[in-house]
Amino acid sequence: MHRQYFFGYGSLVNHRTHSYPDARRARLEGWRRTWCHTQLRDEAFLSVHPADGAVIHGLVAAVPQQDWRALDLRESGYDRHAVTTGITHDLSAPAEVHVYAIPDRHRRVGEGGHILMSYLDVVVQGFLHHYGPAGVAHFFDTTDGWAVRVLDDRGAPRYPRHQILSAEEKDIVDRHLAQVPAEVVEKID
């Protein structure tokens, strides 16, 4: 039986948010990231959807003893999908890789929802650590759904796995946000 790994493309890229072993860079072809608004909560989820020709960068990490329960709990609201093609990594042994995506049954139709800055900060920090500034630019370029409000909650982070960012890391997030159609707001009415 192959070892089991997940492909993280958002907060799971930031190894400070988890302790899963054997984490390493990977890429996934045929999928694209999107901010997804759901009926589950007001804050947007970062999700993926199949997309011909798309490529996203991320991180694979091992799921110890193939016990998915803790990760499934962390990724509540998502469905887990086996990735049988399009995954590239440098693992020395064959691996079974899964990716999490928000299912259509949870998606919200119409307006509403927002992105938490504390969540986005965690994602960007992870990409910066593993891929450098070019990886952060790739993250923004390969993610849809930026025409939304971003709640600046840095002063009182709402994201449960928030991290402390340096001034330089915050500046990188802010510069990239200024280049997408997101509206940064101090409060949500």
Break the fold down into its secondary structure elements and pairings.
Elements: E1 3-8, E2 24-36, E3 45-62, H1 69-74, E4 79-83, E5 87-89, E6 95-101, E7 114-116, H2 117-141, E8 143-144, E9 149-151, H3 167-177, E10 183-185
Parallel strand pairs: 1-6, 2-8, 7-9, 9-10
Antiparallel strand pairs: 1-3, 2-3, 2-5, 4-6
Written overview of the protein:
- It is a single chain.
- This protein is α/β, with parallel strands linked by helices and 189 residues long.
- The chain has one domain (3-185): Gamma-glutamyl cyclotransferase-like (Hypothetical upf0131 protein ytfp, Roll), CATH 3.10.490.
- Helices cover 22% and strands 33% of the residues.
- The chain is built from 3 helices and 10 strands; from the N terminus they run βββαββββαββαβ.
- It has helices at 69-74, 117-141, 167-177, and strands spanning 3-8, 24-36, 45-62, 79-83, 87-89, 95-101, 114-116, 143-144, 149-151, 183-185.
- The strands form 2 sheets. Strands 1, 2, 3, 4, 5, 6 and 8 form a 7-stranded mixed sheet that branches. The protein has a 3-stranded parallel sheet with strand order 7-9-10.
- α3 (167-177) links the parallel β9 (149-151) and β10 (183-185).
- α2 crosses α3.
- It starts with a strand and ends with a strand.
